[in-house]
Amino acid sequence: MRSAALTMLTASGLAVSGLLAACGSGGPAVQAQATGGAPVYGGTLTYLEHQPPTCLYLPAAGFYPNGGVLNQLTDKLTWQDPKTLRIEPWIATKWEVNKDATEYTFHLRDGVTFSDGSPLDASAVAANFDVYGLGDTDLKLPPAEFVNNYERSEVIDNRTVRFHFKKPSPGFLQGTSVIGAGLVSKKTISLPYEQQCQLKNVIGSGPFTVAKQVVDKEIDLTARKDYNWAPASSKHQGRAYLDTIKIIVTPEDNVRVGALTSGQADYVRYVQAYDEKTVKDANFKIYAEPTRGVNNGLYLRPGNSILSDLDVRKALQAGTNAKEVVDTLFTPSYPVATSVLSHLAHGYVDLSKELAYDPAKANALLDKAGWARGADGIRAKDGKPLQLGVFVSGPQPLSKQTLELIAQQWTKIGVKLEIRPADAGTQAVDIKNAEKTAIAHSMVGRADEDVIKSHFHSQNRDVILSKDAKLDKLLEEESALADKAARDAKVGEIQRYVVDQGYAIPLFEEPQVYGAAPYVQGVAFEAVARPTFYSVWLSKR
Amino acid sequence: MTRYVLLRVGQAALVLWAAFTAGYVLLQLLPGDSILIKFQNPELGLSPQQIAEIRAYYGGGDPPIIGYLHTLLGFLRGGFGYSIDTGTPVVERLAEALPETAKLATAGFALAVLIAVVLAFAAGYSRTSWLRGALLAVPSLFVSVPAFWLGILLIQVFSFRLGLVPVIGGSPTQQLLLPVLTLAVPISAPIAQVLARGIDQVYTQPFVPVVAAKGASRWWILWRHVARNAMLPALTVAGMTFGELIAGSVVTETVFGRNGIGRLTEQAVNAQDTPVMLAVVVLASTVFVLVNLGVDLLFPVLDPRLKAAA
User: Fold this and answer.
1) Which of A469, A517, B28, B166 is least crowded, fewest Cβ atoms below 10 Å from its Cβ?
2) At what angle do helices B90-125 and B274-302 cross, to 10 degrees?
3) Residue B44 and residue A60: Cβ atoms within 8 Å?
4) Is A145's CB within 8 Å of B42's CB?
């Protein structure tokens, strides 16, 4: 279940923003209405969630159970079309950005209210982003990962707000569309951290409001009848189709799937790879939504005394068979990685040649690096075995099985992978220790070029515990390029560099996998695969 | 008698204090802490410096002995502090979880006792040796069934295949049926075993043929004479299975997605949420101590010989 809170959050944080999915579903705008006739209003959707939500402070919304709730309760300044990844108007009807991307001016829609009746105006938006950009020490509110270089807000008039940045921040526009940038009432945003963590205090302007909560078990959402400010490009306008959504926490994998196929639930999150067939065989639908960011993979830490040798890192890269991992443990919903980034990410470049499986090359590199095979087949140098530690990553699907399979592959090249079970405390302490945790198993989702910076920069997630000044510099250059083409090219350069340096062994493009009954129509997701229930409706069973 | 009661109550208080202290020390010895686990979340992007400030705010910077006394004092006053994971007062979380688990545990325990008594009596009454053997083998089977597996099996069969009981939604009673059964089966086993063995032993006592010679029926002997004497060890075991009820509720509540002390414990352990874990330890010890105190005080009532000794 919540095996390591830390990893979970890490990974889940992953998806700070993102794009959407493959399967003919779109964001609110692009509804899958191919089947089922004309949409009908009313009805209750029973949605089974894998884990209970934790703290619902918006910048912590990346954790999927949190995002699944908050995405229904809050609106954002802008909407990112999951297919095109373009940023479109939502609460902001239009905006201007100055040439070097240090000033953003947003013009707000009129007549939008929070569910407590207070207006969603320029001062409310300013109050939100002041906290997301700077944090608030007195209220113990940490800043958000998706806002960088924030300086201050400026309320021009009731419906116009301007944000100033210390440095060029081209990622900010997309940042206003991410799950963590949901707008909450002035009252909510001025509460201390513990209070903002609690669902009852989250007052948004979204299409649903909280009707009932049984902590850790159930959250009932009810449609806001006066909701009338969906993104302009959404086909559906006005109130949501559904009357009620029952979000029920059901930790057991086979109970969620069984409840779905036996008709006790309509829609479930987190269908394991080995359960996909059960769901499909029952004529239910699988939605494998891409998360469009840094791929699920092993991230090698050069600070580790063994991995400080580039040849060893390159050997591990060549000695890992990602295709075998996917073929053995996963399904076509999990595409084999062809770069550090998902093929749907901004600036993706295909590096599959560089990442080809080549055990002979791996062995040669390790021989060259002076690691000789011992009697047990494991290599050693100066009496020290070639053994590397990695934690099982709670949020990654089948992390333990994945690592076990890779450990087998590595035995063939004489490397021992020491897989450590994820106990949250030990992990929290050791994860920052390259000697004990030589390798991190993780991923991050966000549909912006900055996702690669989030993952690798020494001041962000710093998954490889980087001391590589060149990498940091490349990442900073990327995040400050105002021109999209130049920025994408820089992202390509970074992917190449990370692979060349053997910092990453990408495995697969991690999706979020949902299952839904055939009568659930209009299934849609935001750009990093969190469900949007606004356009969902139920056709006849 | 008063002295006996006072002595037992004093012992109970001592056990509680020891449980609290052991719990506190062990939780402090764990690597990492909930603040690190929670705030190292990369989405929040906090520096180690900022995390240290947050820790200081939660009182994590105090010397261990001060922290211990502070917490102990809080517990004595009935304040368990705040859950670090969710930011809610621990008392609130317990108040939400406790009634759910109490329902589950009470019903599960009652059913377990019923199953145990029926099994032991049937075995004790039966004269067919293969049937007796079969009945006596049931507890061994029950005790070896993992609650986890049993719960999933019951859901698959009764809910998903036969559609008799919904697992999602459903009335509160419907929601209780399968979890109660899941919890009761493994707990009934030790009680049934001890009761059946007790009945066997009492049957070998000289007074049994005497009663039979006086013309008592087999049922009367079993019910009135044998069972009554075989009851004491079973009662002790029943008191001790309480610990299993709590352990069992962790699994049962997770499988069935019920909120309760078990789920709360599981989540608190995963997040290393010390205030919640400590409160659960103390709560569990309290109930454990009370149940055993109750059992001890019941003994003299059931067996007059103990009354004299006390």
Assistant:
1) A469
2) 40
3) yes
4) yes
* A residues 52-81 closer than 8 Å to B (CB): 52, 54-55, 59-60, 62-63
Q: What is the largest CA-CA distance in chain B?
A: 85
H or E element, residue A317? helix A310-318
A145, A16 in Cβ contact below 8 A? yes
B265 with B83: CB under 8 angstroms?
no
Q: What are the distances in angstroms from CA B157 to CA B161, B166, B181, B184?
A: 5, 11, 13, 18
Give the burial string for B155-185 (b: 16+ CB within 10 Å, else e).
bbebbbeeeebbbbeeeeeebbbbbbbbbbb
Alpha-helical (H) ranges within A135-291 are: 172-175, 186-189, 193-196, 253-261, 276-281
Mutate: best of B270, B273, B274, B277, partner A, most A CBs <10 A: B270
Q: Each residue of B106-120: pLDDT tens digit?
A: 999 999 999 999 999
Distance CA A318, CA A252 (A): 37
- How many Å separate Cα A144 from the centre of its chain? 14
The token duo for A160 is 């116009």
Write the CA distances from B216 to A127, A280, B212, B221, B271, integer angstroms.
Answer: 86, 66, 5, 6, 61
- The span from the CA of A515 to the CA of A536, in Å, is 14
Q: Is B272 within 8 Å of A425 (Cβ atoms)? A: yes
The answer to whether the CB atoms of A259 and B31 lie below 8 A apart is no
Report the interhelical angle of B90-125 vs B172-203 (nearest 10°): 40
Residues with Cβ within 8 Å of residue A382, at least 6 apart in sequence: none
Q: Can you give the pTM of this predicted structure?
A: 0.87
Instruction: With CA atoms as reference, report the closest residue to B121 among B220, B27, B43, B39.
Output: B220
Q: Which residues of A touch B167 (CB under 8 A)?
A: 255, 258-259, 264
Q: 3-class SS at A518?
A: coil
**Per-residue pLDDT in tens (0 to 9) along chain A, 541 residues:** 333 333 333 333 333 333 333 333 333 434 444 456 899 999 999 999 998 888 899 998 888 999 999 999 999 999 999 989 999 999 999 999 999 999 999 999 999 999 999 999 999 999 999 999 999 988 988 888 889 899 999 999 999 999 999 999 999 999 999 999 999 999 999 999 888 989 999 999 999 999 999 888 899 999 999 999 999 999 999 999 999 999 999 988 989 999 999 999 999 999 999 999 999 999 999 999 999 999 999 999 999 999 999 999 999 999 999 999 999 999 999 999 999 999 999 999 999 999 999 999 999 999 999 999 999 999 999 999 999 999 998 889 999 999 999 999 999 999 999 998 867 788 888 888 999 999 999 999 888 999 999 899 988 888 999 899 999 999 999 999 988 999 999 999 999 999 999 999 999 999 999 999 999 999 999 999 999 999 999 998 8
Which amino acid, A505? Answer: I
> A201 near A191, Cβ under 8 Å?
yes
Q: Is there a contact between A216 and B264 if contact means CB atoms under 8 Å apart?
A: yes
- Out of B86, B160, B264, whose CB is closest to A262? B160
